[in-house]
Amino acid sequence: MGAAWERWEGFWVAGVHRGAVCRTFDGELLTTRVAFEDGAGTLFASESLLRLAPSGETWHAFRYRQEPGGLEEGARRDEAELGADTLPASGEYLLVSQLAASARDGAAYRRVEEAAPDGLPAPAEIRRHPAEPIDLPDGRCVDAERFEVTAGGQRVASYWTHGGAVVRSAWAGALCFAAGSAPAALVGTDERLEAFLAEGFRRA
């Protein structure tokens, strides 16, 4: 199911570096943590744990938590009677990465919203678009292929890849840029974010 990796991204809102994203994958479990400061001193944190099925062809279960608000959700695919063609939203990063490394033009699936898994999965697709120049925070301009994610007829995310790797993404009103390390992703942000991004929510 692929080699293990850890990837960090800076999280930008309206041109301001507000936080970071940490994604780790061990070949079976994808962990996605997002943390940022909203500009008024409030910290936002979310964590998604997505476990793939042993075959790697679909997913097995997920858990999601978001603070503030105390939102906690989760589902097992078979118990929730969700088809093998469904995919929780955090898994789109893996699918985009697979598409970028292939010659495929896109993929269709049904999107499960991790914050509201009881809703009907929306018909979704990822479509590949030609490379276009994009600016990165370090001042470089690179040609990157764009992958558009639509669900229920609405665009919900965009990803840009360069050299087969995701270098920029746009979702939920934010822009995220790949960073080479945790310090690079966190530079200039609230120092309280680092512990959560490294450890997640501590569970009893």
Give structural attributes:
mainly beta; 13 strands; 13-stranded mixed beta sheet; 3 helices; globular; 204 residues
What is shown here, in short?
This protein has three helices and 13 strands. By secondary structure, it is mostly beta strands.
Structure write-up:
With 204 residues, the protein is mainly beta. The protein has three helices and 13 strands; from the N terminus they run βββββββαββββββαα. It has helices spanning 92-100, 182-186, 193-199, and strands at residues 5-13, 16-25, 29-37, 43-52, 59-67, 71-76, 86-88, 106-112, 122-135, 141-151, 154-162, 165-171, 174-179. Strands 6-5-4-3-2-1-13-12-11-10-9-8-7 form a 13-stranded mixed beta sheet, sandwiched between helices. A hairpin with a 6-residue loop joins β4 and β5 (59-67). The longest helix has 9 residues, at 92-100. The radius of gyration is 16 Å and the shape is globular.
- Say how many strands there are: 13
User: Cα-atom Rg, whole angstroms?
Assistant: 16 Å
Structural class: mainly beta
Largest sheet: 13 strands, mixed
Oligomer: single chain
Principal-axis shape: globular
Strand order of the largest sheet: 6-5-4-3-2-1-13-12-11-10-9-8-7
The helix/strand order is EEEEEEEHEEEEEEHH
Which stretches are poorly predicted, pLDDT < 50 over at least 5 residues? none
Secondary structure: helix percent: 10-25%
Strand composition percent: over 45%
**Average pLDDT number:** 95
Number of helices, where a helix is a run of at least 4 consecutive DSSP H or I residues: 3
Distance between the termini: 30 Å
